Amino acid sequence: MTHLPNALALQRNALWEPLGLASLVMPALLLIVITMLLPVCWLFYLSVLSDAGSFSLEHYQRMWEQPSYGRTFLTTFRVSLLTTGICILLGYPLAYFLSELPKRAANLCMVAVLLPLWTSLLVRTYAWLVLLQRRGLINNWGIELGLWDEPLALVHNLAGTLIGMVHVMLPFLVLPLYSAMRAIDRNYLRAAANLGASPLRSFWLVFFPLALPGLSAGVLIVFILCLGFYVTPAVLGGGKVIMVSSRIANDIEIFFNWGAASALGVVLLVLTALLILGTARLTRLGNIVPSGEQP
Amino acid sequence: MARNSSLPITIAQVTKTYGKVFALDHVDLHIQSGEFLTLLGPSGSGKTTLLTVLAGFTRPDGGSLKFGDTEMITVPPHKRDVGMVFQNYALFPHMTVAGNVAFPLKLRGIVGAESARRVERALEMVRLGGYGARGVDQLSGGQRQRVALARAMVFEPRIMLMDEPLSALDKQLREHMQIELRQLHEQLGMTTVYVTHDQREALTMSDRIAVINGGRIMQLDTPRAIYERPANRFVAEFIGESTFLPVTVAQGRLSLAGQNLLTADPLPASGQHLLMLRPERLRVLADGEDPGAGFNLLQGTLVATVYQGDSSLLQVALADGAKVQVRSASIGTGLAAPTEPGHALRLALAVHDTVLLPPDGAPA
User: Fold this and answer.
1) Hey, which end of chain A has fewer CB within 10 Å, N or C?
2) C-alpha distances in angstroms, A124 versus A119, A121, A129?
3) Distance of residue B354 Cα from the nearest chain A Cα, in angstroms
4) By the 8 A CB rule, do B83 and B101 touch?
5) Residue A294's pLDDT is what?
6) Is the pLDDT of residue A290 over 50?
7) Which tens digits make up the pLDDT trace of B254-276?
8) B89 close contact with A: CB closer than 8 A
């Protein structure tokens, strides 16, 4: 063995190669540790301190005992679920349409889909406020065209929150879904038709399962982003749609209660993590073969 | 699988244009019930377009397509009930082998034990019995090809379409599958339309071959007739090797470089024609050898010899300077001809193999 020429040098190379590869992720890893992992640990530490500075579970206990906290979590999940649902209803056909377009046209349309992301979130949210308020553009037009008589309550409630959030979230659903759909070899659909599948069955039995990884990815991203969303519900909800994020902001800005805010953050983090794990297991997210892979 | 009834296909005036280009130019073609017909042509000739018209994926500008007596041209693909093997197989990646083969059965309401029985039998026919539980990505190219075949025939269609199904396989496997496909066809008897650009494959497998170019059928005939009596230069060039020499027919005689030649077919009208010479049909005569009756004799000089393993290719200049290719079998060292350039040779060409084609530029 050791009599082979260059054996030692080659062994050394084999050792260094993975280290070199690992060094590529070091900057990102360091950044995450400093800006993410350490603060989360700090958060956790704060959440188990009493106001007096000793160890206590009083913040968690209060959350358990006061029903208003439970309602907040319920609202958060309800709003997130509704937003995700509406995004699917709007985004799925859109992504399908885009995936059927010629490449150039699709790219152009994709720019249009992504355009909202280039504008500040705050600007977009206040723009919706202007459009949706009682004497806003939409109500004025609706009444003038005779579509409805009284100004509709489109803002400072659940409806306004959903409109704003769906607008923000839609690109995050369309993007992964579109690329998954684009990758599906249309010969699969031809084969399905040839074997006797009507367009509807060919969609359900072939297209939908093949696009599922893209849909799961989009849904997960949108839902998780929704759970921690602050600006849009705070502005368009008008204090009626209280999400966990608003509550955390209140605890810090109004009550200066870092402990309570931290506890809320920790609970939201844990619930979200459990949810991701559950979904991943349910849809076998890591396991689905990427579509269009056949040589 | 019982020998099921097959259907004839009648194509009339089918035309498809892309812009001003004819992909199919008023195609008329009758495919007999149970026949194995190959559409052969170079890429872009329209052969695949014609197949996708049969499957219903391409909407022609006009024309008629009948399966048996039923007009099918406006029927959507999922109601045509034809089996098809795709070039890249198009096996569903999210289903197992059995799931793929059971797919057409499920759509026809056949499920449970009956489905399982038929799936297994179809897999056995393509010698993949017991592979049902495998994933598609666990199969080799040849196995995928078989699964695609099983999926296309499990619902016993009366018409089978194949789009270059063997082109992704290596040479040995391809030749093996050619024989297997042919045997399966004889067993099942369904009308089969097979698309390929591989002339040898077409000659090996087909009952008849339709040579297509520029959206038109150049010749429709048996493999032997296509090879030995091509209708024009395109067909002759596309199938097999050949040399073409301009020749003149005058006063009922065919002459080449001052020599009169005999043909088996009656001579065409006077004028310019092309003489087709297949290299393997020319034989180098030994000194003083008399080929006997039924042969034309050509005089020439050896220009070059190329050794090609199973045979040697000789380049011979005829008396008037025209060069022809001659294939000479390598049997031991017994090459009848000497290999030094400049040597004078006599070539024998059977009268039967002396074939005249219309001159270049004549309407096909």
Assistant:
1) N
2) 7, 5, 9
3) 46
4) no
5) 36
6) no
7) 888 777 888 888 888 888 889 99
8) yes
The whole-number average pLDDT for the span B181-193 is: 90
A-facing residues of B in 152-211 (CB < 8 A) are: 152, 155, 168
pLDDT at A295: 33
Mean pLDDT of B166-170: 85
Q: Where are the domains of chain A?
A: 54-283
- B61: pLDDT strictly greater than 70: yes
Domain containing B161 equals: 9-235
Distance between CA atoms of A238 and B84, rounded to whole angstroms? 60
Residues B229 and B290 in one domain: no
Same domain, B162 and B74: yes
Q: Does A193 contact B78 at a Cβ distance shorter than 8 Å?
A: yes
Provide the percentage of residues in chain B whose pLDDT is more than 70: 95
- CA of B16 vs chain A CAs: smallest distance (Å): 19
Element (H, E) at B85: strand B83-85
Rounded Cα distance between B196 and A89, Å, is: 44
- The answer to whether the beta carbons of residues B40 and B201 sit under 8 Å apart is no
B135 plus B199 within the same structural domain: yes
Domain final residue pick, B235, B251, B282: B235
pLDDT value at residue A165:
92
By DSSP bridging, strand B62-67 and strand B70-71 are: antiparallel
Give chain A positions within 8 Å (CB) of B108.
196
Looking at the structure, tell me whether residues B187 and B254 fall in a common domain.
Answer: no
- Tell me what percent of the residues of chain B surpass a pLDDT of 90: 53
- Give backbone dihedrals phi and psi of B22, rounded to 5 degrees, phi first: -85, 115
B151 chain-A contacts, CB cut-off 8 A: 195
| B259 and A CB contact within 8 Å | no
Query: What CATH number is associated with residue B134?
Result: 3.40.50.300
Token pair belonging to A74: 């319920």
Mutate to test the interface with B, among A184, A195, A203, A210 (most CBs of B within 10 A): A195
Tell me the CA end-to-end span of chain A in Å, nearest whole number.
40
Please tell me whether residues B88 and B203 are part of one structural domain.
yes
Rounded to two decimals, the ipTM of the complex is 0.82
A210/B93 touch (CB, cutoff 8 Å), yes or no = yes
User: Do residue B86 and residue A187 have CB atoms under 8 angstroms apart?
Assistant: yes
Choose the closest CB to B108 out of A190, A196, A292. A196
Fold classification of A54-283 is MetI-like fold (1.10.3720)
Whether residue A190 and residue B77 make contact (CB cut-off 8 A), yes or no, is yes
Mind listing the pLDDT tens digit for each residue in A43-67?
889 888 887 778 888 888 888 888 8
CA distance B230 to B278: 12
Same domain, B17 and B131: yes
Shortest CA distance from B137: residue in chain A: A294
Interface with chain B: mutation pick from A194, A212, A291, highest number of B CBs within 10 Å = A194
Cβ-defined contact of B103 to A289 (cutoff 8 Å): no
What mean pLDDT is predicted for residues A252-261?
A: 85
Residue A271 has pLDDT above 70, yes or no: yes
Cβ-nearest to B103 among A187, A195, A210: A195
Phi, psi of A109 (to 5 degrees): -65, -35
Residues B306, B194 share a domain: no
Looking at the complex, report in whole angstroms how far the Cα of residue A193 sits from the nearest Cα belonging to chain B: 5
B207 shares a domain with B74: yes
DSSP 8-state class, residue B214: T
In the predicted model, what is the mean pLDDT of residues B156-169? 90
